């Protein structure tokens, strides 16, 4: 299977995931204000750890001498930590948006039990002993970012009840949806392509990718259940 066909199959997997669609995301299907606020805070908690997750993959790529993948992951991590946003990390940008939009201080919130389980499982997958599986897991983080952010924007608009969104919110979502995340996905895909030479290579990459998708899917289901008890 050529890598172009392989990545087409990967995108088909993304398109089939319910949690990445506004109409079928388990939280979006149950829109109570308390539930949504809980989920927005927990999503911000998740963003605090994205750079660390990618760093595990970066260290793996560096050990293997995969310079293209390492360079791209380093660029992505730099952006997550503020290289293109005046030194302000992306999770802080999101926290500022939540404060401007809804008045709560997400940076000071702790991970819920559902999010703690999710983070632990993600960290484990990003530290896989199989290097290509680790890169596949990192790619899943980047490849799911745009559809997941579209779900988040839908939830934000629902909570806003038709009023104009705050400038901080618009700025955060516009840059992530139109600039940063599409670039992260495309550039990491291009860097990883030369590594996927054999069926075995592609299978390992796909295992990491599919595993992360499953972990994310279970997290959204758990968030919906957890938030319902708020």
Plain-language structure description:
The chain has 230 residues and is mostly helical. It has one domain (3-228): Up-down Bundle (Heme Oxygenase, Chain A), CATH 1.20.910. The chain contains ten helices and no strands. Helix 1 (3-15) packs parallel to helix 10 (199-228), helix 2 runs antiparallel to helix 5 (90-102) and helix 3 runs antiparallel to helix 4 (67-80). The chain is globular.
Helix and strand layout, with pairings?
Elements: H1 3-15, H2 33-48, H3 50-64, H4 67-80, H5 90-102, H6 113-125, H7 131-143, H8 145-160, H9 167-192, H10 199-228
Helix pairs in contact: 1-10, 2-5, 2-8, 2-10, 3-4, 3-7, 4-9, 5-9, 6-10, 7-9, 7-10, 8-9
Quick overview of this protein structure:
This protein is mainly α.
Q: What would you call the shape? A: globular
CATH architecture classification name: Up-down Bundle
Strand content: under 5%
Q: What Rg, in angstroms, do the CA atoms define?
A: 17 Å
Total number of helical segments? 10
SS-based structural class?
A: mainly alpha
Mean pLDDT equals 95
**Extended strand count:** 0
Per CATH, the superfamily is: Heme oxygenase-like
CATH class: Mainly Alpha
Instruction: Please give the largest β-sheet.
Output: none
Taken together, the total number of domains comes to 1
Attribute tags:
Heme Oxygenase, Chain A; mainly alpha; globular; 10 helices; 230 residues
């Amino acid at each position: 299977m050529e890598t172009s066909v392989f990545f087409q199959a990967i995108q088909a997997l993304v398109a089939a995931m319910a949690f990445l669609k506004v109409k079928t995301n388990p939280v979006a299907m149950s829109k109570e204000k308390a539930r949504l606020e809980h989920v927005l805070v927990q999503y911000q908690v998740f963003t605090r750890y994205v750079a660390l997750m990618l760093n595990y993959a970066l260290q793996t790529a560096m050990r293997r001498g995969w310079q293209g993948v390492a360079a791209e992951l380093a660029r992505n991590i730099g952006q997550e930590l503020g290289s293109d946003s005046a030194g302000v990390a992306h999770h802080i940008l999101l926290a500022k948006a939540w404060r401007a939009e809804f008045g709560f201080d997400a940076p000071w919130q702790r991970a819920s039990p559902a999010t703690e389980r999710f983070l632990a499982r993600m960290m484990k997958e990003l530290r896989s002993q199989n290097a290509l599986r680790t890169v596949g897991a990192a790619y899943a983080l980047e490849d799911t970012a745009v559809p997941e952010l579209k779900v988040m924007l839908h939830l934000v608009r629902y909570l806003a009840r038709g009023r104009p969104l705050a400038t901080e919110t618009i700025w955060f979502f516009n840059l992530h949806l139109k600039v940063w995340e599409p670039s992260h996905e495309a550039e990491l895909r291009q860097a990883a392509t030369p590594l996927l030479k054999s069926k075995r290579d592609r299978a390992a990459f796909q295992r990491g990718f599919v595993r992360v998708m499953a972990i994310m899917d279970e997290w959204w289901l758990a968030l919906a259940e957890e938030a319902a008890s708020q």
